[in-house]
Amino acid sequence: MKTRATAYPVWNAFLPAPDSPLPLREQLLRFLRKGVAEGSLAAGVRLPASRLLADELGVSRMTVTGVYEQLIGEGFLEARQGAGTYIAARIDAPVPADLPSAHAALRGSQRGRLLTGLDSMSLALPDWPLTPGLPALDAFPHAVWGKLEGRFWRNQAAAHSAYGDPQGLLSLGEALADYLGASRAIACRADNIIITPGAQAAVSIAALAIADHGQQAWVESPGYDATHRSLALAGLDSVGVPVDAQGLDVEAGRRLAPEARLALVSPSHQYPSGVTMSLERRLALLKWADQADAMILEDDYDSEFRYACAPTPALKALDANHGRVIYIGTLSKLLIPGLRLGFLVAPDAWIDVLQRVRNGSGYRVPKALQATAAEFISQGHLGRHIRRAKALYSERRDALLAALASEAHGLLTVSNASTGLHLLGHLADSCDDQALTHAARHRQIGAGALSRLYVGHHSRVQQGLLLGFGNTPAGSMRGAVQTLCRLIDAQPGQR
Predict the structure, then answer these.
(1) Using one digit for the tens of pLDDT, what is the confidence trace for 23-51?
(2) CA distances to 99, 124, 330, 468, 480 from 421, in Å
(3) How do beta strands 464-468 and 448-449 pair?
(4) CATH superfamily, region 384-489
(5) Distances (CA, A) of 319 to 173, 187, 362, 488, 493
(6) Domain 9-92: CATH architecture, name and number where available
(7) Which helix (H) or strand (E) holds 84?
């Protein structure tokens, strides 16, 4: 390469790499773009003539001309008639003082900043043992589901290609209405049901339809953090209401947020404590909603899996004459999360506004998924799958309880182990459950931290571990529990 001229010292920074897989033309393009973006090539700098630069770099003039022309077209350079080629002045134009800087824009909205971090369902990989919130992925009836979905696509009706009813497929609504009547004692019709892409979307739709920006909502504390995020996205102010052995403390809610517009509860199987809301509290909650002209969102995510007795009726079953409860269900826990299939069951008076919000938000569910789910339920496959899954979960739960009994004596105290797909193990106050779960993830164990799920100020935040057993083979329980116990023992202040 020839000696470079000194008239354009900036080119001393350009060092072509002969061994680069990129041709010299691409290297030169990237150098110029980066120089303009970073400011080393300031606005108004005159570039060498194409002939001079080509001679300096030892390439054809056509190569340099092509680079200049491309960057002129992209807006990085500008050609001045009879005066040469320059860095485009508008690239480096100063920002007026009264406009926000790029860094300010990158901070995002206040609503977006409320969602910093991952929700509890995103902290571990699906195949890690003890991950809460996961059903048995290995038990999903893929063959049956695939056969039903294939039948939908083979029936190439023109209606299959249209958007479909914004409320959801009628056949799925009818199948769900029959299922809910038999399993959850909910008396409803297909036109009371709106299909959504998962339970979290259902919470978002309901929150947007019920409450205005800035209004308050009761949430269980501790409670499921993903649903709290849905309320934040809707612009609501979540007020954490304590949960005790009877469920959400309604009187505490009245004191903390007497003007709340809605309450989000999981009465059949509270997440994460596992308690079932007492009848006294259920009636008190319905009474509050009537008196406050408020609504209740009932999150019923996995109550079908009870191991000591039959499932309790849904709160919605007590609401026949009040119209205060919107029931939120999901097939994610019954089948697999990847389906992203949930639904709302609402009083007649709320269907229109819920449907409009659902339609305006774009929360639609693929028609093939809805049609397959409708056939799966109506042909009895869902009932059979739940019975098989319940037997499998009972075996896995027993294996986890046995491992805890033999390995975790004095380290973890388990309560409310009769329902759902996870256990809650309470730790001593001297433990740091978030440090424990961080260390566990480094060992590919997906236990969750209880303290992360509190909302607002509490005089005492309990330490504990959420131990999922739904997707953990029975043979993997003891080893995972042993590892957790070693991590607990290693905490400061432990034995």
Answers:
(1) 888 888 888 888 777 777 778 888 888 88
(2) 51, 16, 14, 6, 16
(3) antiparallel
(4) Aspartate Aminotransferase, domain 1 (3.90.1150.10)
(5) 20, 10, 29, 45, 49
(6) Orthogonal Bundle (1.10)
(7) strand 84-87
The Cα 72–Cα 84 span in angstroms is: 12
Rg from Cα positions in the chain? 30
How many Å apart are CA 370 and CA 365, to the nearest integer?
7
**Residues 179-224: pLDDT tens digits?**
999 999 999 999 999 999 999 999 999 999 999 999 999 999 999 9
- Residue 390 is encoded by which pair of tokens? 């319940």
Which residue from 127, 113, 117 is spatially nearest to 434, judged by alpha carbons? 117
The amino acid present at 411, given as its one-letter code, is: L
Global pTM value = 0.78
Question: Which tokens belong to 285?
Answer: 């909650």
Per-domain boundaries in the chain? 9-92, 141-380, 384-489
What is the Cα–Cα distance from 465 to 173, expressed in whole angstroms? 37
CATH 3.40.640.10 fits 141-380, yes or no: yes
Q: Tell me the DSSP string of 168-219.
A: --HHHHHHHHHHHHHHH-----GGGEEEESSHHHHHHHHHHHH--TT-EEEE
